[in-house]
User: Which sequence fits this backbone?
């Protein structure tokens, strides 16, 4: 059954957020809805900005800055069966209305519902609301871990009900009208909870749910300054006092409980003001004003409650019945709208021919937190896909199940506990990987429910998407790079844990709808190491891409005025596979012939894991300082470096060297080429596909320190080559290896995987 | 136990976990899943290569499992009562004579009374387990360090004592588990009989609705 929905948005002075919300509503999966915007006494250009939506929305003016009154005006104008409220600084998940429709249509007893609210906050993302409960004395809790954990609440002697948060709540219109709508004596807060109390008391079923998500991107308003504690907390106190006292008078409930709650609210506000003053966030006059306002709020709340109890049964001025007409919001082009950044409101400026995709990218680590090569690749892919108009969700590891928006993608943090697969605990890597993969799978299921995800893209490394691939819930694209089985074979590791992890990788590849290898070399590895028949499976070669830095940031070699000191940069972990020993052996030969050279080695020591320490008893730095003490003054070991440092290192070097014995692709060469730097690598793995030998740099044989030294010397002795190879490298990147090139190819792979799944379903 | 784990074992485990997840997401299924997780965890602790659990931890886990099972049974019992109410509501909607009310009502009450009684017995058994557990604690408090050869002798005696109580404890748990099993089986029977009855009632209601609507059309 398809119900008609009226979405009511109440707004004052937040035009940017409002327009962003209206853009996001175009993406709703459920089409049968109208939009009613109730504008308060605004001082910005809200009304002008809404002209663009003329004929698609209904605009109503609210004379005062009173949220309850504004909500009631929306309710009065609504023509739908269901009235859904959302704040102007929030955006709904794609299936928001579809899920609400399902809830109301399947259970006619439900009068009101609403889902979770995720705070998209740059510093402290959190679940702002989920399955709330509320009592007549004003106490409220979120039941985040399931009702079973909170069973005793019913037994505390107060009247409790489930509640929704104002930014994500929906009511049957007739039911809400029958109880008189919202109490207009609540100007800003508690209005949503109090309605739930009255609905429950009148015998209606209020049943919020855990999903049906709304993403809250808080914006400043006349009552609060966003991302600070500067909020008019006294409005909260006034509402809390009004509610607690009124219900105490009406229900003759426990006065002590009401009094304690008011004391708690008001007391914590005053403590907060004092702390803010101590930390010099507010002035003395603001502190005094705030405390006075608190006291006034207490007495006003008390007075309002007494007056309402004596003179009125209900105080709702804006409710009456009038003729309504339903006006649909979506239009034909709605499904072709590019994805929207919920924070800035930015949208790709392109005309789409096919509807944009909804993609989940997996990556165990991801910026802005610490990340590795897979995280970097995923970040670039997400950015590229957003630029092509697609909605991107990234699932990464985190301690709390929060969501933030970063650089074109919703980033979902997935915590995991070792609560499953306990019988595999003797295999720690497998045990951890499976538990995390299962947690990712659960998160994906919720994303399918809320955001209508179509496809999953998982790296082979750490097998994040393995459980999803086994479950066959969604089509899966696998991105193989250098993976565990390959490394195990390179390092000759034979423990059962690593062997099984390699088997899991193979099974993931076999279950992939499309495999997106980053180079022809990786495709060959699939055959050799994983024994994958690429004629049976779809294997696409999609090279990595990165975002080109601006023209101002590039630093080609100044061959007209060469610097006194020439800098050679190495970036990568200090380990055997990265060819660090070959570089060490080449350095003395270079120093001998080019005395004004300096080597910078950026990367963490990995001598423990690659077995170097067990063989030699020392780390790489000690090894170098003992074996080549004469060169120590010419080499700087930086250890692990930050992103900013890395950019600066690329920018300021003259030559980039990374003699890796194997790289599935070689993203580091691209990063140096981005700043117009010539590069030297080995003829191994995917490196020859990135470095054009004799055009953008040189390729030498693996394990050949002599050749390496020769190539470095040749380039350092020729300023013109340093300049020309650098510029050619930058151009090669712009022509073939940008994140947009990569995203376009991935888009094709995703559409291929989707069509393959659909054709399988049909057959 | 000594056979090395294979990829097929892992795939089977994943399928099993996925099957657990496909249960409907209500409170009862949530409780079942919690029990399942607790069970697999302690199974691994006791029989696989996990750290050796202390007696106290094990007893706590067992007690928690019992408590959750009891709560689960109570929840199932409540939903059975709700089902019974639903069937009563439906009956009110249906004209008299379609169902033999008296007989079914009494049999339903009898079944529910039986379940309640069984729950009471379970509660008693749980308190018995708790008593046994407290005995174990007292014994542990008396374990004072004694030097020399007495230590070994004392340890042997101590272990025998632990085994004695542990045996008792496990036997009691087995009795409780047996009762859980039979009770759950009975509840399933009662539940399915209610579902059958409800289906019958819904069909009857549909017939009546059709009958009335056709009458209205004719008139």
Assistant:
């Amino acid at each position: 059954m398809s119900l008609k929905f009226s979405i009511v948005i109440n707004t004052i002075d937040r035009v940017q957020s409002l327009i962003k919300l209206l853009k996001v509503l175009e993406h709703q999966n459920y089409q049968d809805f109208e939009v009613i915007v109730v504008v308060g006494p605004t001082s910005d250009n809200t009304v002008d900005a809404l002209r663009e939506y003329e004929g698609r929305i209904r605009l109503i003016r609210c004379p005062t800055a009173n949220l309850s009154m504004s909500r009631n005006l929306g309710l009065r104008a609504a023509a739908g069966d269901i009235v859904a409220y959302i704040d102007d600084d929030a955006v709904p998940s794609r299936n928001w209305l579809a899920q609400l429709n399902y809830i109301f249509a399947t259970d006619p007893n439900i009068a009101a519902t609403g889902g979770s609210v995720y705070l998209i906050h740059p510093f402290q993302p959190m679940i702002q609301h989920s399955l709330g409960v509320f009592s007549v004395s004003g106490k409220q809790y979120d039941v985040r871990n399931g009702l079973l954990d909170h069973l005793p609440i019913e037994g505390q002697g107060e009247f409790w009900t489930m509640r929704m948060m104002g930014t994500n709540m929906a009511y049957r219109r007739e039911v809400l009208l029958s109880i008189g709508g919202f109490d207009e004596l609540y100007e800003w807060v508690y209005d949503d909870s109090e309605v739930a109390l009255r609905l429950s008391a009148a015998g209606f079923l209020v049943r919020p749910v855990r999903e049906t998500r709304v993403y809250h991107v808080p914006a400043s308003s006349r009552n609060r300054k966003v991302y600070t504690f500067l909020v008019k907390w006294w409005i909260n106190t006034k509402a809390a006092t009004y509610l607690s006292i009124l219900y105490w008078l009406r229900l003759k409930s426990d006065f002590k409980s009401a009094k304690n709650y008011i004391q708690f609210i008001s007391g914590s506000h005053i403590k907060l003001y004092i702390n803010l003053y101590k930390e010099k966030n507010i002035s003395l006059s603001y502190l005094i004003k705030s405390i006075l306002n608190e006291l006034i709020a207490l007495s006003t709340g008390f007075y309002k409650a007494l007056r309402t109890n004596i003179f009125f049964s209900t105080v709702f001025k804006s409710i009456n019945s009038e003729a309504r007409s339903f006006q649909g919001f979506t239009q034909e082009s709605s499904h072709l709208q590019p994805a929207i950044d919920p924070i800035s409101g930015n949208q790709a400026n392109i005309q789409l021919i096919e509807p944009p995709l909804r993609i989940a990218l997996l990556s165990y680590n991801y910026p802005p937190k610490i990340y590795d090569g897979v995280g970097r690749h995923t970040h670039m892919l997400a950015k590229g896909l957003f630029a092509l108009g697609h909605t991107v969700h990234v699932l990464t590891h985190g301690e709390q199940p929060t969501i933030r928006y970063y650089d074109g993608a919703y980033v979902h943090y997935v915590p995991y506990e070792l609560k499953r697969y306990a019988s595999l605990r003797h295999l720690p890597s497998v045990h951890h990987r499976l538990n995390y993969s299962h947690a990712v799978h659960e998160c994906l299921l919720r994303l399918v429910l809320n955001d209508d995800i179509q496809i999953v893209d998982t790296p082979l490394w750490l097998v994040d998407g393995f459980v999803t691939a086994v479950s066959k819930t969604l089509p899966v694209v696998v991105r193989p790079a250098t993976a565990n089985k390959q490394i195990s074979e390179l390092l000759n590791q034979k423990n059962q844990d690593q062997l099984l992890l390699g088997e899991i990788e193979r099974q993931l590849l076999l279950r992939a709808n499309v495999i997106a290898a980053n180079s022809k070399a990786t495709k060959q590895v699939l055959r050799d190491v994983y024994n994958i028949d690429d004629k049976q499976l779809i294997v696409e070669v999609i090279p990595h891409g990165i975002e080109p830095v601006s023209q101002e940031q590039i630093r080609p070699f100044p061959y007209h005025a060469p610097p006194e000191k020439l800098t050679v940069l190495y970036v990568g972990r200090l380990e055997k596979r990265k060819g660090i020993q070959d570089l060490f052996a080449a350095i003395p030969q270079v120093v001998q012939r080019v005395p004004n050279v300096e080597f910078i080695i950026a990367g963490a020591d990995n001598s423990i894991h690659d077995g170097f320490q067990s063989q030699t008893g020392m780390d790489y730095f000690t090894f170098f300082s003992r074996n080549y003490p004469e060169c120590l003054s010419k080499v700087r070991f930086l250890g692990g470096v930050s992103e900013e440092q890395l950019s600066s290192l690329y920018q300021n070097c003259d030559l980039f060297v990374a003699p890796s014995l194997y790289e599935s692709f070689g993203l580091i060469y691209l990063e140096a080429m981005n700043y117009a730097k010539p590069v030297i690598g080995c003829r191994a793995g995917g490196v020859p596909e990135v470095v054009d030998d004799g055009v953008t740099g040189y390729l030498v044989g693996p394990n050949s320190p002599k050749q390496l030294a020769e190539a470095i010397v040749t380039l350092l002795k020729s300023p013109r080559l340093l300049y020309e190879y650098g510029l050619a490298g930058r151009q090669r990147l712009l022509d073939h290896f940008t994140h947009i090139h990569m995203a376009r190819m991935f888009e094709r792979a995703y559409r291929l995987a989707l069509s393959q799944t659909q054709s399988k379903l049909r057959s | 136990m000594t056979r090395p784990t294979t990829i097929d074992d892992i795939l089977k485990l994943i399928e099993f976990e996925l099957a657990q997840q496909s249960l409907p997401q209500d409170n009862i299924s949530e409780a079942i899943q919690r029990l399942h997780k607790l069970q697999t965890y302690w199974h691994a602790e006791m029989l696989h290569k996990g750290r050796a659990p202390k007696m106290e931890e094990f007893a706590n886990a067992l007690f928690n499992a019992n408590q959750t099972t009891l709560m689960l049974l109570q929840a199932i019992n409540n939903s059975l009562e709700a089902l019974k109410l639903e069937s009563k509501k439906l009956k009110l909607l249906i004209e008299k004579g379609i169902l033999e009310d008296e007989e079914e009502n009494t049999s339903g009450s009898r079944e529910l009374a039986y379940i309640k009684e069984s729950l009471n017995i379970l509660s008693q058994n749980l308190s018995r387990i708790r008593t046994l557990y407290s005995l174990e604690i007292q014994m542990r408090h008396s374990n004072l360090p004694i030097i020399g050869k007495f230590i070994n002798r004392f340890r042997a005696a101590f272990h025998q004592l632990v085994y004695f109580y542990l045996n008792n404890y496990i036997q009691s748990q087995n009795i409780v588990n047996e009762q859980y099993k039979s009770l759950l089986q009975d509840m399933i029977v009662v539940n399915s009989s209610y579902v059958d009855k409800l289906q019958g009632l819904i069909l009857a209601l549909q017939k009546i609705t059709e009958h009335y609507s056709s009458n209205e059309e004719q008139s």
Q: What stands out?
A: The first strand of chain A starts at residue 5 and ends at 11. Residues 144-156 of chain A have pLDDT under 50 and may be disordered. The CA atoms of residues 242 and 301 of chain A lie 4 Å apart. Residues 284-311 of chain A form the longest helix (28 residues).
